[in-house]
Design goal:
This protein is α+β, with helices and mostly antiparallel strands and 128 residues long. It has 3 helices and 5 strands; from the N terminus they run H-H-E-E-E-E-E-H.
Amino acid sequence: MNKLFMKVIGIYSMFMTNGLFAQEGGEVASGREQGIWHTVVMIGIALVFFYIILWRPEQKKRRAMDQRRNGLDKGDKVTAMGIIGTVLRVQDDTIILKMYDGAKIEVLKAAITDVQHSSEDGSRKDES
């Protein structure tokens, strides 16, 4: 990330300092052209910033959660919209959850916010 940042700064400085090093007989870009280049470079830096800082990490989190949702098995504990239950059956887009009191509900996989696989619960009990 540091190399990318340095490249962006280098490109920015290259475009912004060309008027400073112009010779007396040479043509200097007008203020309007410099303003356009400045605007284009700043928009580019903002887009790179949003991609690196915001969009890319969110994509990674979304992919990881999709993998966890698709890896659901019978007996896993899940949280869906604040409802905690144990997976009874996994279907294409939905799952059947069994609640603490024995009630069963069907929820969309996309509504699942947390997954605790049944093997994780067993290993935690063994460690303590």
